[in-house]
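Dear Dr. H.,

I hope your travels went smoothly. While you were away I took the liberty of generating a structure for the chain from your last submission, since the lab meeting agenda had it listed for discussion. I wanted you to have the full record in hand beforehand rather than looking at slides cold. The sequence, exactly as received, is reproduced here:
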Amino acid sequence: MKEIAYFPGCTHLHTASHFERSALSVFEALGWRLVEKFNWICCGTVHGLSTDNLMQNVSAVRNLARAESAGARRIVTNCAMCYNTLKQANEMVKRDEDALKNLNEFMDDEPDYRGGVEVLHSLQLLREIGLDEIEKRVVKPLEGLRVAPYYGCLLLRPREVAIDNPERPKIMDEVLKAIGAEIVRDARLKYCCGSYHTVDRKEIVLSRIDEIISAVRRRGADLIAVACPLCEFNLDKRQKFLNKGGLPVLYFTQLIALAFGKEEDCLFEKHHVDPRPLLKERGLLR
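The corresponding predicted structure, in token form, is as follows:
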């Protein structure tokens, strides 16, 4: 069993526990153990856009320093927001020696970070493991299930930290095709879901998710696959305000776990739009 340092992120401990459980199950089936090798803290949630605001990078760099001190050379995370925040901070300190020096001096109770950690999203690790290996472990192909892979913002922007081509991403498509799903594509699957406007400008989020869901419905999608807990919250749980009938929204890891015969690790009951009737109708759930 191979091991890699794992950064869960805050939501995986409560609202996105179904994301974590399905991911751990999938990687274990593929021969990889995701291990919390260092005492992690919140990533900081959003990378600061101000060029002179080093303080907003403290949490991310503190995590990187702890990972490096623990001997980790690569860390993987499932959450798109954690990935983006950690990756952008990492790239910033690698190209800006003064910023790294100032952050290390500020974090005087931490080991100095020397820039020796690589940040990965779990989709990248799946691509590294290989589509052939994923296909080998499928016991319940998702044949006939039309899935719209929702990338959103943070896996693809900015370009320097994108896990795939920002204009024509296919990494999630390929993983889902490997488990038998039929892919539904639409330009709106790269749109922002509304993000934190869900707190104080809910109307913005409702307008955006209505546009996204309506578009993939017109293309015949049975459900949407996501890689971000905030996207899942907006696209799934905010549907209750649309009054248009629900379209299931699942984490991509839940779909893989289902195809691997690990339905007990999917925790489908945690979703607002219950996917179980659809999956039972298609013969994918008992």
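Two observations you may find useful: The mean pLDDT is 95. The chain has two domains: 2-122, 141-281.

With kind regards,
E. W.
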